[in-house]
Each structure stands twice: as structure tokens, then as C-alpha cells.
Amino acid sequence: MPSVIEDLRIRLAELEDLERARSLLAWDERTMMPQGGGPARSEQIATLERIRHEMLASDELGRLLEELRPHEESLPADSDEAALIRIARRDHEKARRVPADLKAEIARAASRGEHAWLEARASADFEEFLPYLERNVELKLRYSECFEAEHPYDPLLDDYEPGMTTAEASQLLEELKAGIMPLVAAVVESGNGVDDSCLYGDFPAERQERLLHELARELPLPPGTWRLDATAHPFQTAIATTDLRITTRYDERNLAGGLFALLHEAGHALYEGGVDPALERTPLGSPDSLVLHESQSRLLENQVGRNAAFWWHFYPVVQRAFPEALGGVDLRTFHRAVNKVRPSFIRVGADEVTYNLHVILRFELELELVEGVLAVSDLPEAWNERFRGYLGLEVPDDANGVLQDVHWSEGSFGYFPTYSIGNAVSGQLWEAIRAALPDLDDELAHGELGPLREWLREHVHRFGRKLSPAGVLERVVGEPIRVDPYLRYLREKVKETYGVG
Ligand code: ZN
């Protein structure tokens, strides 16, 4: 049925173009746009969102998909074409349930919310942000009601992790929490200190920028396929597999922040850049599982980026960039510093052990908001109380608490759990990588990331949206998502650094 499938492909390619154009507007909004562009940009994004939504939910697309049903059934289920039709149908059916007006309103409120959040965070003023956040929650609840879901959080989670239920996410995060709380307590109780003062000092932004560009090139991100810019909240977005946008932030008093943000976002970029080019301009070309996405970013940031062998090669590069600050600091001291475990306020700067408690706290609060157990206006208090319980710290102000993340400002509820579930998947993949690449430490110590990248491309990246986390793990380790390998990895790390756990 060449003509019908060809017709479908053309429509899907246009939908992809609109989505990538929207991503580019959003990237520009956060990196380049002068502040005055905000209101107009919110409208531009809402318009693109509406057009895309109308095309995706259209009767014509539905008719094409219906006509293609016999063709789809005649294909092997794992072929690209069968996956294309299946995923297009899923997107179409999801879009049909949501009125275009609501979709546009959500996009508009997200853009407005983000502008309000930037100002509210700068002045640590939650009240200023409250009406925007209330609006986002209200809209997301209306969105959720469009689906007849078992739990109102299910449709929100499904937008970030297709097919995963709230019950599954809760179960995995409970298991993680049960494994991590005692580990953090053991570190705190041991009283064993790690000196990380070498990471704080004088690190001029332009030298950080030069260093991070050098690092990104070696990761290896191919020349001519990426750019790196500065933003308030680091992120990565792909305009194409050969047009990857990475952002980080430069804190002149703290070297680790920008460095690990780069590794994290570069992990996302390697993933998007590794998708099979044949899937470009189809819905299969945009990985949509944030669990898989985060497994890739967190793996590069942590399993690789906090690994002694990795720094064997890269630490001298860092030292050359900052000879005054680091010339007299040896590799072992630097490596221990980047593995320090200590409860802290900011999620993105958190060590890899306590990080998960930051995420679990947010997930639990999101559930309470969506279930109507918690009022948005009570969020700061609920945050601070839970923070005390999990991390043992008194939150000094909302900028260091409930206002720190961009996600809720743009209506992204359901996103947070994917960070920690992604961590769990990174643990499973890391064990598989260790077994498959016995010389990995040696390669990392020589700055050779090629074999690791090839493994990831072969087993994860190239499939794009074709495989879910379960599909990837089934092929690689023959198991569903499990938290044990990741907990094993964390326990080993804590034992190595602190001698406890
Ligand atoms: Zn990420």
C-alpha cells in the first residue's frame, strides 16, 4: 500500500518538523531571547502547539491509520514500519482525547509560568509564583480528566514515561528509598569527612566555557552537530540528530556545577545524536522515554563522570584550565571531592546518593497535589517538612527549596520520577557494560570514550522511540526495571569513599 503509507509518512514528517520548530523556539527562549520577547514567544509557542495538535488529532490522520491496519498486521511487529504506524496511532488516539484549546492553553501557561518562576526564584518569593503554579496544576488536572485513567497521575506520567503506571513508579521509588535512607544515615553517622574545598574557589566563566567545550568534543560529540550555551537551568534539546543543543551554567565560585551539568546534558545529546538517521523526521526518531533519557544522562554524569579512570585522563585537562586553583590538588583529592556524599538543598548539585531523595520528595508532593490531598499554597511548608525528614536540613528560603526547579513552572508534572527510575536503569546498563567492555577503565583512562559510546549506540541509542526501557533491558539483561544493581553500585561507591555502608 505504497501511497497510503507514503501519505502517512509525509504527515508524520510535518508533525515532527512542527515539534522540532517548537523545541527551537523554546531553546531560544531560554538561551538567547531578550526578556522583552516573553509574551510574544508564549503566543508563538501556543500557536505552533495548536496547529500540531489539530493535525495530530485530525480525522484524516485517523482515516489513514485505519486504512493501514491490514498493512500493519501483515508486517513483522518489530519492523520500523509497524512501529511507525503503532506509535502514530498511539499519539493520534492520545491527542483525540484532548481539546486543542486545552493543549494551547497548557502551552501558553507553561511559557508564562516559566517567566514568572525566573523572577520569583530570583527574589525567593513563592507568593509571586503561586497563581501561575495553581494555574498549571488546574490545567494538568483538566488534562488528566481527558483520559479515563485508574489514577489521575497516570496520564501525566505517561507523557514522560509511556506506559508506566503510578503504581509501578511508586513501587520502584519506595524500593530505592528503602535502600538509600540507611546509606545516607551511615555516611552521616560515620562522621568521616571528605574535603571538597578544591571545587570551590575562583573559576572564571570564560575559562570554564573553554574547558567544557574541550570536554564535550572528547566525549565524543561529533564536530558540527552541537552547540553549548549558558542558561539558568541546564537542559538539552535536539533539533535534529545532527543539531544538538546543550546548555550548562557557570558558577564562578563552584567548578562542579557546570562541569557535571555538561556531562549530564551531553549524555542526553549523545542519545539523541545516536538515533538511527533513517528514523529522522518520523515519530520514531524522537526518544520519548525519559527513563531511558535519564539513564543516559545520569550514566555519563555519574558512572562515567565520577569514575577514577575517567579523571585519570581528564583531570590534567581541568588542572591546565585552572592552574592556580587546582595545580596543587592531586587526582585522588579531586576524585574524592566529586564523590562526596552530603545532604544539600539543591537537587542538580546533589551527590548521586542523596539525589534520589530529592526526586522522591518531589514525586510524593506531586502525587499529593494531583490527588487533592495537598493545596498548592501549602506546598512550601510541605516541602520543608519532608526535606527535614529525608535530608535532615532546615530549608532557609524557597529559592533553596520549592522554587529551585523549572519543571513545575512549565507544568511538567510526572517528569521527576523518571530521574530516579532512570538512575535505576543506568545501574542495570552499567553492569551490562562492565561485563561487555572488560577494558573500559583502561579506555577511559586514555580518554577513549568511543567504545562506550558505540555500545550505547548499538544497545540503546539507535532505536530511538522504537524500544521502551523494558524493551531495551529485555534485550540487554533479560530483565525488567530493577533497583538492586543501582543500589549495589551506590553501596560500593560509599564503601570506597567512606569505608561504611
Ligand atoms: Zn536530564
Detailed description of the structure:
With 501 residues, the chain is mostly helical. Helices cover 63% and strands 3% of the residues. The protein contains 22 helices and 3 strands. It has a 3-stranded mixed beta sheet with strand order 1-3-2, with helices on both faces. Helix 1 packs antiparallel against helix 2, helix 6 (100-122) packs antiparallel against helix 7 and helix 10 (205-218) runs antiparallel to helix 13 (308-321). It is globular. It binds zinc ion. The site of zinc ion has 4 residues, from helix 11 and helix 12.
Mean pLDDT: 95
Biggest sheet architecture: 3 strands, mixed
Bound molecules: zinc ion
Unreliable spans are none
Cα Rg: 22 Å
Number of strands: 3
Instruction: Please write the string of helix (H) and strand (E) elements.
Output: HHHHHHHHHHEEEHHHHHHHHHHHH
Binned strand content: under 5%
Number of helices: 22
Short characterization:
The chain has 501 residues and is mainly α. 63% of the residues lie in helices and 3% in strands. Helix 12 crosses helix 18.
Which keywords apply here?
22 helices; 3 strands; binds zinc ion; mainly alpha; globular; three-stranded mixed sheet; 501 residues
Topology (SSEs and partners):
Blueprint: H1 2-31, H2 38-56, H3 59-67, H4 69-74, H5 80-96, H6 100-122, H7 126-145, H8 154-160, H9 166-190, H10 205-218, E1 226-230, E2 236-240, E3 243-248, H11 255-273, H12 290-304, H13 308-321, H14 323-326, H15 331-337, H16 355-371, H17 379-391, H18 417-436, H19 440-445, H20 450-459, H21 469-476, H22 484-498
Parallel strand pairs: 1-3
Antiparallel strand pairs: 2-3
Helix pairs in contact: 1-2, 1-3, 2-6, 6-7, 9-18, 9-22, 10-13, 11-12, 12-18, 13-15, 16-17, 16-18, 18-22
Bound molecules: zinc ion.
